[in-house]
Amino acid sequence: MGKGANLRGGVLLAPLILCLTSAMIPFCQAIWMNLPPTGTKCVSEEIQNNVVVLADYVVISEDHSHPTPTIAVKVTSPYGNNLHHQENVTYGQFAFTTKEAGNYLACFWVDGHHKGGDVSVNLEWKTGIAAKDWESVARKEKIEGVELELRKLEGAVQAIHENLIYLKSKEAEMRIVSETTNSRVAWFSILSLGVCIAVSVFQIWYLKRYFQKKKLI
Known about the structure:
Elements: H1 2-24, E1 30-35, E2 40-47, E3 52-60, E4 71-76, E5 82-89, E6 91-97, E7 102-110, E8 119-127, H2 134-141, H3 146-213
């Protein structure tokens, strides 16, 4: 009786965990870009520190009568550090763990020898919990079923917690900047008012002295 109840409980718990995990883990949505023959298109995302980023990109050739055009790719960190740079490629992948918090930029452009029209590129960008290889985790730790879904749920909750902490720190930074700006504006207003009063007093004194010299008053 106890084993049957536990089995039924596990069967009912699995869909619930799956739904919660699916709701909290961001789905991987491919980004479709049309690159012009000249110029650059970039994709950016604000990512906090110590987050895994994994991305795959591939050129989609609609004209099979000609060779697939090649592109160049460059990924930079918020401080301008080069994280990935490839040229003359039709597909590729980049993966890294963020060392800086801020906007990470991935730029794509068509190689100069391409003479046709726009080039279509499909980009799949994963961050955080979505970039984790759960199949490898399951094989390594020998877990499956409900236990694996619980592990995914734990990872999702941890990612949400870290994101909330990051947002809280950003909000604190913005509040400090806002308070500092308000303080500077207040002091500038006081200084401007003081200068205006001083100039007005000087003008009155100068005009009074001028009229007295002219014996008009």
